[in-house]
Amino acid sequence: MELSTILIKVAGVALLIWTIYSIYRHVREKRKAIKSPKPGEVQSVSEQILNNILLYLWLAFMVVFSIGMVVNN
To answer: What pTM was estimated for this model as a whole?
Structure first.
């Protein structure tokens, strides 16, 4: 295997681990926010929906991209 292929696979695994950790951290923060809401940080429903759609699309893209880096090279 060439060095460039190994580096791409390592970068893909690192991105995948980072993305999975980000998903875990997001879920943990959401659960914590539900249990103890802060009165100063209120978002409108439409803002929450748009932020979550954007976040979940980004996380889905990163998962697919990093898996693609590992599998395709």
So the answer is: 0.78
Burial 20-53 (b: 16+ CB within 10 A, else e): eeebeeeeeeeeeeeeeeeeeeeeeeeeeeeeee
Q: Supply the DSSP symbol for 29.
A: H
Tokens representing 42 are 């209120």
Report the distance separating Cα 43 and Cα 48, nearest Å. 6
Average of per-residue pLDDT values in the chain: 89
Closest by CA position to 48, among listed 60, 64, 37: 37
Residues contacting residue 3 through CB under 8 Å, at least 6 positions apart: none
Separation CA 38–CA 73 (nearest Å): 46
For the chain, give the percent of residues with pLDDT over 70: 97
